[in-house]
Write a structure and sequence with these properties.
Elements: E1 4-5, E2 17-25, E3 30-36, E4 39-44, E5 51-54, E6 63-67, E7 71-75, E8 83-84, E9 87-88, E10 94-97, E11 102-105, E12 108-114, H1 124-129, H2 143-156, E13 162-165, H3 172-181, E14 190-194, H4 200-208, E15 209-210, E16 222-223, H5 225-228, E17 233-237, H6 244-256, E18 258-259, E19 268-269, E20 273-278, H7 282-287, H8 293-299, E21 302-305, H9 316-331, H10 340-347, H11 354-368, H12 381-384, H13 404-418, H14 423-430, H15 434-443
Parallel strand pairs: 4-5, 13-20, 13-21, 14-17, 17-20
Antiparallel strand pairs: 1-5, 2-3, 2-12, 4-6, 6-7, 7-10, 8-9, 8-11, 11-12, 15-16, 18-19
Helix pairs in contact: 2-3, 9-11, 13-14, 14-15
């Protein structure tokens, strides 16, 4: 009997989604299920399950996916067992599940994937899913990033393999997803694999799949990610970490479009587009014999190089402001102001951790800032301030007292905007009496919002 996977539950509204979905792949079908922000989803053959798997080796109530700040998978006492990354899950255990982890139930594979709902590059939904800033309008970065986006859109239209290069934290995975969603394969699966996260033996099992008995612990046959990504895209993150033996096998798959599971002699034909990303200089790796030149040529159909943040200082203001709004929205507080002197200080830093480091630093500043202005005391100055030997002049010290009046006016305007002009709610948001709030409107000559008729 051939197993077929179906989804029977109603999809949650977009507002409830957490930017991730469950990719469910059976022998002759695949389906996706948006994950809610929190809750419990049952998985199994029974018709009442949120995710129904019509697989003869699946129990009626097979497993349970707990979704929240951290995802966990629990086996509900299934007959044939559940495996995560080829490790058995004991009944009752709640095993942590991360983006990209594979779950095997019988001949069905389930993978937690990030959700990108856009058909073009760098839309707000994609940025939010990745924890990156959401622009308040069309924003594609500075001139350097706009050139990257334009090239990405052209590459997405074809089937050519794409290599994304850039330092850690610049957003390579984000751009890879955007290329897929802008491509003709957008309706197909998008499957990602972190090549540095697995041992060589487990990496090959994940990529190529295996037959039952192929090695100790292979109690069931499992399709690999190369089969799972059929008619879609396989994203190989940190491809420079692939062992040489695995590189040779992957090269053959790319050349022949045939994949053979471990322990099998029968190849399967695949239709997959490859997108790879690396923070290494692959040409240098080829020169020292750590990366196969022929594989490099196969993956490098077109290269998208994301510039480091230190070369994109014209984006610092937008990124920092957006991070502040995003963090304060989650905290339920009015965003503090980032004065121009602080922006100058941020623009002078080299950002070895790129956008990810900037987000962490802004979050730290927001949490430390109890007032309405982010100051130097809220930043790690030992890291940010240029040394005397650098030849750069340190930005001037900020006198926050001189900024009290304009800052308070900005806070009032921000609160009014956040409360749609409701003065009582805005006063409550700022933590001041309504009468005081109204007097400040007059003091700063802010027009009092008119009541709706």
């Amino acid at each position: 009997m051939r197993g077929r996977t179906t989804i029977v539950a109603t999809q949650p509204d977009e507002g409830e989604a957490i930017g991730a979905f469950l990719l469910v792949v059976g022998r002759d079908a695949y389906a996706t299920y948006n994950l809610p922000a929190s809750g419990t989803l049952t998985i199994g053959r029974g018709e009442t399950n949120a995710v129904r798997i019509d697989d003869p080796l699946a129990s009626r109530a097979h497993a349970c996916l707990h979704v929240g700040d951290q995802m966990f998978l629990e086996d509900l006492g299934s007959v044939n067992g559940t495996r995560i990354k080829d490790q058995s899950v004991k009944q009752g255990d709640q095993v942590p599940l991360s983006i990209g982890d594979t779950v095997q139930i019988g001949s069905t594979v389930l993978i937690v994937q990030r959700r990108t709902t856009t058909a073009d590059v760098m839309r707000p939904e994609t940025l939010r899913d990745q924890g990156l800033p959401v622009p308040e309008g069309p924003f594609r970065g500075g001139e350097a990033m706009q050139r990257v986006h334009e090239l990405a859109e052209r590459a997405a239209a074809g089937t050519i393999n794409v290599l994304i290069a850039g330092e850690t934290g610049v957003g390579k995975e984000l751009l890879a997803e955007a290329v897929h969603r802008a491509s003709p394969r957008r309706e197909g699966p998008y499957v990602c694999l972190n090549c540095a996260a697995l041992s060589e033996s487990l990496l090959e099992s994940e990529l190529f799949g295996h037959e039952r008995g192929a090695f100790t612990g292979a109690v069931q046959a499992k399709p690999g990610l190369l089969e799972t990504a059929a008619s879609g895209t396989l994203f190989l993150d940190e491809v420079g970490e692939l062992p040489l033996a695995t590189q040779a096998k992957l090269l053959r798959v790319i050349e022949t479009r045939l994949v053979t599971r471990l322990g099998s002699v029968r190849p399967h034909r695949i239709d997959v587009r490859f997108i790879a990303a690396t923070n290494r200089d692959l040409e240098a790796e080829v020169a020292r014999g750590a990366f196969r030149q022929d594989l490099y040529f196969r993956l490098n159909g077109i290269t998208l190089t994301i510039p480091p943040l230190r070369l994109r200082s014209d984006e610092i203001r937008h990124l920092a402001d957006t991070f502040v709004r995003q963090i304060c929205r989650d905290l339920g507080r009015v965003p503090p102001i980032i004065p121009s002197q602080i922006i100058t200080l941020l623009e002078s830093y080299a950002w070895p951790g790129n956008i990810r480091e900037l987000k962490n630093m802004i979050e730290r500043a927001v949490l430390l800032c109890a007032g309405s202005v982010i100051g130097q005391e809220h930043l790690p100055l030992d890291k940010l301030m240029p040394s005397a030997s650098s030849g750069r002049t340190p930005p001037p010290r900020i006198d926050t007292q001189e900024m009290t009046a304009p800052t308070e006016r900005d806070r009032i305007m921000t609160a009014l905007a956040a409360c749609a002009g409701n003065q009582s709610r805005a006063a409550k948001l700022l933590g001041i009496p309504r009468r005081t709030f109204v007097s400040k409107l007059d003091a700063y000559q802010i027009p009092r919002p008119k009541k709706s008729l």
